[in-house]
Amino acid sequence: MSATPARTASSGLVTGSGASERRLPWYHLLLTAAIAIALAAIVLVLFDSFSIGGLVVLGYVLHLVIGYGYSRIREGRRWANDRFATLLVFGAFAVAMIPLISLLWEVLHRGLGKLISPYPGYFWTADMAGVVGGMVSGGIAHAIVGTLLITLGASIISVPIGLLTAIFLVEYARYGALRVLGRGITFLVDVMTGIPSIVAGLFGLALFITITNDPGIRIGLMGSVALSVLMVPTVVRSSEEMLRLVPLELREAAYGLGVPKWLTIVKVVLRTSIAGLTTGVTLAIARVIGETAPLLLTVGALPMMNGNLFSGRMQTLPTFINSQYRSGNAVCNSDAITNPITHMQYACSTTINYDRAWAAALTLILMVMILNIVARLVSRLFAPKLGR
Amino acid sequence: MSTPAAADPASTAPEQDPAQSPEPGGSKAVAGRRSKRRPGDMIFTGLSVGSGLLIFVTLALVAIFLTVRSIPAIRDSKELGGGPDAISLWSFAAPLVFGTVFAALLALIMAVPVSIGIALFISHFAPRRLATPLGFMIDLLAAVPSVVFGLWGGVWLVPKMQPLYELLNTYVGWFPLFGGDPSTPMRNLATASIVLAVMILPIITAVSREVFLQTPRLQEEAALALGATRWEMIRAVVLPFGRSGVVSASMLGLGRALGETMAVLMVLSPGATFSLHILEVGQHNTIAANIASQSAEATPDVMARLIFTGLVLFVITFVINALARAIVSRSAKS
């Protein structure tokens, strides 16, 4: 669709709007681009501020002008507008790539060093007990455990609720009062998708303060509850889509054999869509595993391991990144610092807090990416062969 | 297939679309032989209806808890309580609301044109074979956790933006937005809005792309056959067709930007004014970032005030999202 009609139009003259209108081949764009880049380079060198970034930006802007002007003269107004719009659209995509590439590069480049020193795996197996000042030690084992436990808790709460709600919407909300209820729930799930994460955190906080009557309560379970407010709508949406994909013929065949409705759902509908459901749940977990704001409010922070969701504060990866970032540069008064707990001596580095933050960010991104890849693999490998 | 349902007296459903039409076995089991229902069916029905209702209850609980917990703040405020030394809830919340809406609107202004460009690029400009991987690249942006965006914004973006801000402030300083007296490091609202814009880009792009791809192929080909350039075809066919979709996508993005915490918390150095100068440091703050930074050491009365602002945020995003969904469902019907 993209190129063929345009090429047909370019081969002949467009009638009715001036004989000078004809489409030039695409390599004329290279010509104007080269002129624009050269001009940009000259301008930048003249102003003594040459840089690759400046060259690309100025070159692009100049090319907008030069390319438009050239096309205006050789091809006419309409094709010149087309060229201009095409350039703008390509530019929009390039602009969006800047944050993505720079972010991934920065995380990899700044985080990898800390991840593999003093030896690979140390950062993932040590915790922050007794780590003070600019001490070059400490790790995120406690934060990884906290993140995994709290996310597991959130999944245990939200997967059954989300899945059963999706089953209700697809299998039960078909007529009468249930249909009206289903409409309402669909609307509320949509709205719930947009709840700000900080509001979910406030909800978890207010809920537990009200239940226990202790304003200072901060436990892992509160984080799980807050996260599940964000996770349920995602699970419902994806599961609902997957359940609707199951062909009616399968259900009818089961009913025809006298299978009760609930067994049909469990043995036929769920079994057929299990791959899609797993994918949806995995993506939902990937979405909430990086949530920070609700955990800031509900689980607090702790420098050491706490494997109990039901008592005491916990550290999680996102809140760890935030707290390390907020600590800023460390002060190094002497070359070596002693850990007050283990009495071991460590070197001192002023940038250690940022190093830890980047390494933890790399770990978190790796977790999210692995979850995403697993989700895609599951949906590809275990997809039911429905069509023939 | 629809005959048994229509003949069934208990079935009061009006017209059912094919995807939702009841299977004969199901409707008979529910309506025809109600007395003979199996216990397994009853339990399963109860469970699924119950969890559906639980969603109602959860949303209601969110609203109720936020309201109940913010009552002390409302009661003791200067406006209602009337005490001379009481704190004015208005002067506490209004700058935050202003900052939240301002930052979100700035992010929206930056993100929407770029998103429409990307969506058009993927749907109509990129080679067909590349469209899927390129779309995946944009989705990758959505997978990055917000705290990593905050880290990237605070460490990498802030120094990178400084020359541009100085340029803007020197030469376009007469324009109210770029006026004022920016100081380094540039932890100002402009940087925070840029990070917000990057974060809402994927959702706006994804929704717009879907709408653009649904443009009737025949109309597109008709426009091209009449001699329209690709851009003229897009302006005449694709954009009018996708307008409501783009509007609702933008509102979804706005909802996200209003509620986003970490990017603002980690990039912006906070203040509490109604300043329009987005380059000036320490002038603005948003509701979400304020809650996140204050809640750790909040006394009960401060906490009540924070929860009150959270309630305001909840109401704002609720309305925005409901509007967006309403537009989507209306355009889906027509």
Automatic annotation (TrEMBL), chain A:
Instruction: Tell me what organism the protein belongs to.
Output: Brachybacterium halotolerans
Query: Its domain of life?
Result: Bacteria
Q: Which UniProt keywords apply?
A: Cell membrane, Membrane, Phosphate transport, Transmembrane, Transmembrane helix, Transport
Location in or out of the cell: Cell membrane
For this entry, the protein name equals: Phosphate transport system permease protein PstA
The protein's topology relative to the membrane is:
Multi-pass membrane protein
The record's comment on protein family reads:
Belongs to the binding-protein-dependent transport system permease family. CysTW subfamily.
Membrane-crossing residues? 26-46, 52-71, 83-105, 140-173, 185-211, 217-236, 357-378
Question: What gene is this protein translated from?
Answer: pstA
> What does this gene product do?
Part of the binding-protein-dependent transport system for phosphate; probably responsible for the translocation of the substrate across the membrane.
Chief place of localization: membrane
Q: Which residues form the ABC transmembrane type-1 domain?
A: 144-375
For this protein, the record's Gene3D superfamilies field holds: MetI-like (1.10.3720.10)
UniProtKB/TrEMBL annotation, chain B:
Keywords for this protein: Cell membrane, Membrane, Phosphate transport, Transmembrane, Transmembrane helix, Transport
Cell compartment(s), UniProt? Cell membrane
Q: How does it sit in the membrane?
A: Multi-pass membrane protein
Listed InterPro entries: MetI-like (IPR000515), MetI-like_sf (IPR035906), Phosphate_PstC (IPR011864), Phosphate_Transport_Permease (IPR051124)
In residue numbers, the region (Disordered) covers 1-34
Q: Which Pfam families match?
A: BPD_transp_1
Report biased composition (Low complexity) as residue ranges: 1-14
List the transmembrane segments. Answer: 43-69, 89-122, 134-158, 189-207, 302-324
Q: Which residues form the ABC transmembrane type-1 domain?
A: 97-324
Question: To which protein family does this belong?
Answer: Belongs to the binding-protein-dependent transport system permease family. CysTW subfamily.
Q: What does this protein do?
A: Part of the binding-protein-dependent transport system for phosphate; probably responsible for the translocation of the substrate across the membrane.
Its name, as the record gives it, is: Phosphate transport system permease protein
| Species of the source | Brachybacterium halotolerans
This protein's gene is called: pstC
